[in-house]
Amino acid sequence: MSTRDLQDVGEALVRDLLVRARWDILAENFRCQGSELDLVAAKGSTVIVVEVKTRRSIDALLLPESLLSPSKILAIRRGAQKVLADLGTCPETVRLDLALVCASPKPWLARYLCDAACLERHF
Fold it and tell me: In Å, how far are 8, 102, 103, 106 from 115, measured between CA atoms?
């Protein structure tokens, strides 16, 4: 399985879990200024940007804080600004969640972290 295929499997798993939890998917793989937002979803007055990290081994997911660098958070913040402007929405809360998916032996959600990093409402 290629790296892109692996990412697609992880993102599909998380998207399905969000839909089952009654989140409305607003955008997938939204590209902006050289970065990509994996999933953007809304429920009520909250919008979440979900960064999905899929790895072949659970060992690669043991330190989730190492998966979001300050430059990655800044790129996600800029992308969130753009996608919200494009959608014409102004939610009360915008948060960054981190979904960790292990693909071995079959894809499963290893961990889901709400508010993994700060995305202020007023960027």
Answer: 23, 20, 23, 27
Q: Between residues 112 and 6, which one has the greater pLDDT?
A: 112
> Residue 16 belongs to what H/E stretch?
helix 3-20
Going along the chain, which residue ranges are E strands? 24-32, 35-43, 46-55, 93-102, 108-117
What gap in Å lies between CA 54 and CA 101, rounded to an integer?
Answer: 5
pLDDT tens digits, 78-104: 999 999 999 998 899 999 999 999 888
Q: Give all domains of the chain, ordered by start, each with its CATH number.
A: 3-117 (3.40.1350.10)
